[in-house]
Structure formats: C-alpha cells, structure tokens
Write a structure and sequence with these properties.
The chain is α+β, with helices and mostly antiparallel strands. The protein has eight helices and nine strands. The chain folds into two domains: 149 residues, Immunoglobulin-like, CATH 2.60.40; 105 residues, no CATH class.
Length: 278
C-alpha cells in the first residue's frame, strides 16, 4: 500500500493505492501489467481525475523498466476503490535480471509512481497539480514470478524441485549438518554465492571422512565404488569453491557464480538425502 499525494502549492489531496496483481503477456514484445486500486483518503469526499501516471519498476537498486498507466484513468472517489493499470515493456535485459534475482522463495519489486492530475472538493474550485514521487513495494513468490511473468514472456520453461531436508542418524558427527543445509538457502537468497561453499564443504566433509564406512553399506561393489568417487568429487568441488582463485595452487580455489552455488547446494542436499537412506 502507498499514499499517493497530488499537490498544488500548499494544498494537496491523497489517494491510497493498493497492489492487486501483476502478469505479463506477449513473447515478441513482453509487457508487464500491474493492476492497482486507488481510493481518495484526504480530504473526505474529494475526487481525483488522474490525467497521466508514469511508473518505474525496480529490483533492488536496479531499474528494469519504465512505463505508464493505461488510459483513460478512472475517476478516483473516497467511498470506494477504482482500478487502474500500469504497463511496462520488458526487455531481454529486464527478464534476465528477474531470472537471476530469483534466489529465494520471494522477490521484492518496487513501483515508483508520479504524474499529473486534478482534484475537486466541494465547495472549492478544481485544483490541478502533480503527484509526488511515490514508491510502492510488493513481495511476490518465486512461483508467481515464473508462472505470471517469465513463462508468459517466452523466457524459457521451468520446473520446480522440492529439496527435502533429510533426517540423518542422530550421531554427534551429523549434529550440525541439517543446520548448514538450511543456511545454504539463506546465503543464496542474499546473493552470497561464495558463502554457500563453506557450508557445503562442512556438510560434505563429514561424509567424506567416513566414505569408506558409508559405502560399505552398499552391497553392490561397483555401485559402492562409484558412490565413493562421487563423494570425493563433490568434496573437491565444495573445497575449491570456498577458496579464492589466488589459492588455486595450494587449495584448488576458483571463481564462483550463482550457477556454481546452486549446483553445490543441490549436490550437497541430494548427497545427504542419499546417505540418510543407506
């Protein structure tokens, strides 16, 4: 919700703006449609005729699109809500930024509105002025961003994977692993790609140090050998990612990005789930 003020000199009129929904359409010229509701809250009984409204759509400090309201705009009243719609053209750069920002379960977007209009409050005259630059922040789920924005815009296809946090044997060696698995999600959501790797390493190292005992539970010799190799390679990847490239010679360090962080997160969780069921 945001309070959008229309000012003329020292006088002003205020409308409460509430977010209702958003969606995108068109793969050739993708357009983001943001549905909003407005209701005049000050002074009571006033009406606003919004002549034009412009909007800026931002993710964090990055502007991803600029747009304007679909015309004509309805008259806004104080006794009930009126709907209006902001429209933004989504470039490939904007869609890529949305996709790269979906690191957590939710993503916050900001719509900054401004424009011109006039209001009437009987028995006074009609006043014409400008809307204050007003931000409206909205938090949407990752699923909504994908299903309502990326997919309708023709930006690839997606499927969602649930990562169950496994129940590991209640032994001291595994005491902190579940906590580390959960913390990896937080690091990735904050954009701390490098920070995912030390947590993954700590978890995988517990399995690595016991790989002989763990794989001895697998009856089939060939499979046991492959699983042992897999544990060692995941351990190597996790270890390299927690070190800087300048440490490459001694510790195998390398640069990491979001894809690397997502890969080690998935590998670590699936490895933990696999071992929990041995």
């Amino acid at each position: 919700m945001a309070e959008l003020a229309l000012r003329a000199g020292s006088e002003y009129c205020v409308a409460r703006v509430v977010f209702k929904s958003l969606s995108a359409e068109g793969s050739t010229y993708p357009t983001l449609k943001v549905n909003l509701e407005a209701r005049v809250t000050h002074p009571s009984g006033a009406t606003i005729e919004a002549e034009s409204l412009r909007g800026i759509c931002s993710l964090g400090n990055e502007v991803i699109a600029e747009g304007e309201a679909k015309l004509p705009l309805n008259t806004w009243y104080s006794n009930y809500e009126r709907q209006f719609e902001l429209r933004f053209h989504l470039t490939d750069k904007a869609l890529k930024l949305v996709e790269n920002s979906l690191t957590g379960d939710y993503l916050k977007v900001k719509f900054t509105m401004t424009g011109v209009g006039q209001w009437t409050h009987s028995p006074g005259p009609t006043r014409r002025g400008q809307f204050d630059e007003t931000p409206l922040e909205v938090e949407l789920s990752r699923i909504d961003w994908v299903n309502k924005v990326l997919k309708p815009s023709g930006w690839g296809d997606y499927f969602f994977v649930a990562y169950p946090i496994p129940t590991l044997p209640a032994v001291p060696e595994y005491k902190d692993i579940t906590k580390w698995l959960k913390e990896m999600w937080d690091k990735l959501a904050l954009g701390d790609d490098r920070g995912v790797f030390p947590l993954a390493y700590d978890a995988v190292h517990r399995f690595y140090s016991e790989r002989e005992q763990l794989t001895s539970r697998i009856a089939e010799t060939n499979k046991a050998g492959v699983v042992k190799d897999l544990v060692e390679e995941i351990h190597r990847f996790a270890n390299g990612g927690r070190h800087r490239p300048e440490e490459r010679r001694e510790k195998g360090g390398f640069e990491v990005n979001r894809q690397d962080a997502e890969l080690i997160r998935g590998l670590t969780i699936h490895l933990a789930s696999y071992i929990a069921h041995l």
